[in-house]
Amino acid sequence: RSSDLSRNLKSDESVTLRAETVFSPKTSIPLSRSAVQGSWSGIQEAGASSTLNFTICSPATASIGRYNLSVEIVSSGTSTSVQLGQFILLFNAWCADDEVYVTSSDWRKEYVLNDSGIIYRGNCTQIQEIGWNSGQIGRA
To answer: Can you give the C-alpha Rg of the chain in angstroms?
Structure first.
């Protein structure tokens, strides 16, 4: 992600990313030069002096869902917050620390990499089966 600040950051300013969903508390993501294993972290990357480039790393235990992302800049005790947009965090069936980790390579291929399948919708007294085509695998 890249965000144009329209000015250079001052040496005494601190920058923190904030991510929040409707169902989880606001998460502070400090910017640093490397990822922190097992927690939210923001990796600041090289860019133009008025542009903030960063990569966000999430822990395997983070809630999946749609997040609102903002940046907070603190300078001389004054805080300014700017909304950057949204991102969607999904599960990771390849990560051993994730609750949905699938140990079998064959099962991962069937469960995650399959282009089509069945979704069950409804409630406990009325369940409906619907065919699903995710179209996630590109065709040559």
So the answer is: 20
pLDDT digits (tens, 9 = 90+) for 76-114: 888 888 898 999 988 888 888 888 888 998 888 777 777
Q: Half-sphere exposure of 25 toward its Cβ, with a 13 Å CA cutoff?
A: 1
Give the Cβ contact number of residue 78 at 10 Å: 8
Residue 105 parent element (H or E): helix 105-111
Could you tell me if 49 and 5 are in contact, meaning their C-beta atoms sit under 8 angstroms apart? no
Neighbours of 122 (CB within 10 A): 10
Count the residues in the chain: 140
Closest CA relative to residue 51, chosen from 117, 1, 122: 1
